Amino acid sequence: MDVRFIGRDDDNLTQGLCSEYEIRDVQNFVELIEARRKFIRENPDAWPLLSLDEPWQASYTSMHTEMSLDLEDKNSVIRSGEYEEGFDIEEYWTRFTAKERLSFRMRSLDRLADGTGFEDACGFGLGIDDSALDKWCGFQRDPLTLLEKVVFAVLVPASSGEAAFAAFPNGYFSCDLSPPLNLAVIRHFHTAHGYDLIGMGALYLGFWRETLPDETAAAIIADDFRLLYNVGDAAWGAMRPRVIEAIAGRSHLWLRYSE
Question: How far apart are CA 84 and CA 82, in angstroms?
């Protein structure tokens, strides 16, 4: 495995907000998780967020998500008159640290997500058919198949997965869970099941828990999987054992947030 620092340029996944590493020649998922743990040891004030499926598409939609929702709340600065008339707002914004900008984003996300819970994410109407379940089970069995050959690690100056989401927010298209709904899913799976957000893709959220779920825990997690994807009684009878088997004994969990 080859890990290289590629900096904090404007053309990285977070448009220069966070430092980034490129990881090539990953042989297995355990190796990638160990690399993430090393990032944590060497950068205790950062939350490493890994790229999952289609990282550059995820980056593009993340940029437009942040801009369309004005998550850094630049308009409030403009309205307040805190910056000199005629001064370029983007240039002005460079005076803020990444941690400060993330705090602006998190404040905006909290405001947008006020009163939004996991039940609202379930109510969005995502679904899963047999073909999609086959694909998901394959990703669970062999997690590297969800990732691209080159994986990027974004070091977010944050202490939790939900705060890290603010650096790489997604949910831009109408067929996606919106950022507030994604945040509700992230918070629910952390609070209810002990999963932390460790990855972001164009279609998937990536989670990790240190304790391997046994079959009993996997069955409880599977119930929320069913709710998120609105699986009816008839279909769930056949799906349930496959979902439990795909979750049990594995620390990772992939959840698709787009239809």
Answer: 7
Helical ranges in 125-231 per DSSP H: 130-141, 161-165, 179-193, 215-228
Q: What type of residue sits at position 124? A: F
Give the model confidence (pLDDT) of 70-88 as tens digits. 998 877 766 665 555 666 7
The H or E element containing residue 49 is strand 47-51
Cα–Cα distance between 143 and 2 in angstroms, integer?
19
Question: What 8-state DSSP symbol labels residue 143?
Answer: G
- C-alpha–C-alpha distance, residues 77 and 58, integer Å: 28
- Taken in order 119, 68, 58, 174, the sign of the CA dihedral is positive
DSSP structural state of residue 103:
H
DSSP 3-state of 202: coil
Nearest alpha carbon to residue 257 among 192, 189, 206: 206
The pTM (predicted TM-score) of the whole model is 0.94
Distance CA 249, CA 40 (A): 24
SS3 category, 1: coil
What are residue 159's phi and psi, to 5 degrees?
-120, 10
77 or 98, which is more confident: 98
Query: Which range, of 15-19, 81-85, 133-137, 143-147, averages the lowest pLDDT?
Result: 81-85
